[in-house]
Design brief:
The protein is α/β, with parallel strands linked by helices. Helix content is 21%, strand content 34%. Strand 2 (17-22) and strand 3 form a beta hairpin. Helix 4 (137-144) packs across helix 7 (255-261). The chain is globular, with a radius of gyration of 19 Å. The protein starts with a strand and ends with a helix.
Length: 264
């Protein structure tokens, strides 16, 4: 369901935030006002924006954040990460262009992420909004999951976006892995979860399974309860106000998009 508030006014553009979630299948545009009220929520096929989408993308928004998928991501223990060795980390990424590589130290994990955005999507959106801020899911997911990590035991997390799934794991409060897989159907998702559980040494069931990017009503969520003694669906932590006519599930699946920027 697409939605435009009757209060959406062009002369308020300087106070609006445009949040964009771009993927391989669908793009989603979310416009929020200064009070975090939804002014516009609009989704359309990524390769075929309609007239309304083109009109929105042509507006001179001054605050724009774009959430992109990554094409490469590795983690290096921060204690051994060296600025001078950046060229060596490049060998583990798909693209050898070092200028496209970003580095982010995550204190809670004692790890530094080395990552690259999907090249085609990054170039496309940088042309549309040259001054936009860019980000990706793992940054927000790993921040949101901190409150769920048990002091002892196993946590496996699944974050779904379009045809991909990010799967990560913690054992006894220690970060173990974060990987992205192609997962078009529920069967793909279940296979990669089982494989992750095997890698971290469980007997097929994590103490906690954390899911985000989809709601419990999504067909891909069917059967996930079998892989966790506790099953939790991550919710958006930032308070966003939206009309009752707009299904809450459409806001819930944008948790990484919303939480990444509204708390700045």
């Amino acid at each position: 369901m697409n939605y435009t508030s009757k209060n959406f006014q062009l002369h308020y553009l300087p106070s609006y935030k445009l949040l964009v979630k771009t993927d391989f299948i669908n793009d989603t545009l979310l416009v929020l006002n200064a009070a975090n009220e939804v002014e516009v929520l609009y989704s359309y096929p990524a390769d075929m924006p309609d007239g309304e989408a083109v009109k929105l993308l042509g507006l001179p928004f001054q605050q724009v954040y774009i959430n992109l998928p990554v094409q490469s991501l590795i983690f290096v223990p921060t204690e051994v990460f060296e600025e001078a060795d950046k060229k060596h980390y490049q060998d583990f990424l798909l693209d050898d262009k070092s200028e496209r590589t970003n580095f982010l130290s995550i204190a809670a994990l004692e790890a530094t992420a080395c990552y690259q955005y999907d090249l085609l999507l990054h170039n496309r959106w940088r042309k549309i909004f040259p001054e936009a801020k860019f980000g990706t899911d793992f940054q927000t997911v790993l921040s949101q999951v901190q409150s769920f990590i048990p002091a002892a035991g196993t946590l496996v997390g699944v974050h779904v976006r379009d045809c991909q799934a990010d799967i990560y794991a913690f054992v006894d409060n220690q970060f173990q892995m974060y990987s992205t897989f192609e997962a078009n159907v529920a069967g793909d998702l279940h296979y990669f979860i089982l494989n992750t559980l095997k890698q971290v040494g469980t007997e097929g069931v994590a103490d906690r399974l954390i899911v985000s990017g989809i709601t419990k009503d999504d067909v891909r969520a069917t059967g996930l309860v079998a892989y966790g003694k506790e099953l939790h669906f991550m919710e958006t932590r930032t308070a966003v106000r939206y009309p009752s006519a707009l299904p809450s599930s459409q806001i819930e699946v944008l948790n990484t998009l919303i939480d990444a920027h509204l708390c700045e």
